[in-house]
Specification:
The chain is built from 1 helix and 9 strands, in the order αβββββββββ. It is of the alpha+beta class and 147 residues long. β7 and β8 form a beta hairpin.
Length: 147
């Protein structure tokens, strides 16, 4: 026999269980103090130059390299903790397009190089120089920061 009191106890158990689930969901979606957030420039392509190129100077500036500028903005109050230069360039073979891997910013990798990133206010910028005669290169800048 189901009594009013046993129905009420069942309701309380179910309500307590749903309340616990809600508390866990709220906890998991809140940002933990010190948690790192990432922002990125999006992927851009520096096209092949089509001839022998030994200068990092941009072709628009009298050189021969194919260059792209990358910029990432973070919130004004954010503390930048790291930046990452990503590309599909590799030696002796490039990775497939859009399969990025991290390279050290400022290191020459397979006829290409990222300038060391610079920070101006809440924006991080770099320029990628592609000197490859026969390979387009995908590149991206990612910034880690604490809000």
């Amino acid at each position: 026999m189901v009594t009013r009191s046993s129905t009420m106890k069942g309701f309380i158990v179910v309500a307590s269980f749903l309340g616990a689930i809600l508390c866990v969901a709220v906890f998991l979606t809140q940002r933990v103090h010190g948690q790192v957030t990432k922002a990125n420039s999006g992927i851009k392509t520096a096209h092949k130059v089509g001839h022998n190129c030994t200068s990092n100077t941009w072709d628009n500036e009298g050189g021969c390299a194919s260059c792209v500028d990358l910029a990432v903005s973070v919130p004004v109050s954010a503390q930048i903790t790291a930046y990452h230069c990503l590309t599909n360039a590799g030696y002796p073979n490039d990775y497939p397009h859009y399969q990025m891997h991290e390279v050290r910013c400022g290191e020459d990798v397979s006829w290409s190089i990222f300038e060391p990133p610079s920070v101006n206010g809440n924006t991080v910028t770099t320029r990628y120089h592609n000197r490859s005669s026969d390979r387009d290169r995908d590149v991206e800048l990612t910034v880690d920061y604490q809000p």
